[in-house]
Amino acid sequence: MARQKMILDSQRATLLKNGAANLAHRLDDGNTEDFRPVVKLFNPCGAATWLLSELDEDGDTAFGLCDLGMGSPELGYISLAEVAEVQLPHGLYIERDIHFTAKKTLSEYATEARAAGRIEAY
């Protein structure tokens, strides 16, 4: 079975656009835009989930809501290369949820996740 692409080219383009917009905002007035997540990654044999909304110009550092399945989801940065290298049991890897479409902003997901102790994004 072929391994699926972790982030589609169209998603990468949107993540880069969002990252550039918020970098410009931070340099201008310090405020940032609260984007909807563009992609959801998950561990198919565990509880880890990531909702990503931005990508730095380096093309590897993503910003989003991160939940390693330990009851304390938080906003932060991840390395896409490091996430892609995670090898799970049975030859599995971190996957992209092909059915995910964001229905709210990243901060709305974060507020709900902190209350629930996990990300709930379907």
Report on this structure.
The protein is α+β, with helices and mostly antiparallel strands and 122 residues long. The chain has one domain. The chain is built from 3 helices and 5 strands; from the N terminus they run αββββαβα. The longest helix has 20 residues.
Tell me which oligomeric state these chains represent.
single chain
According to DSSP, the number of beta strands is 5
Give helix and strand order, one letter per element, not per position: HEEEEHEH
Computed structural class: alpha+beta
Question: Radius of gyration in whole Å, from Cα?
Answer: 14 Å
Q: Which range does the strand content fall in? A: 15-25%
Biggest sheet record: 5 strands, antiparallel
- Strand line-up in the sheet with most strands: 4-3-2-1-5
Which spans of ≥5 residues are poorly predicted at pLDDT below 50? none
Taking the alpha carbons of the first and last residues, their distance comes to: 25 Å
Number of domains: 1
| Overall form | globular
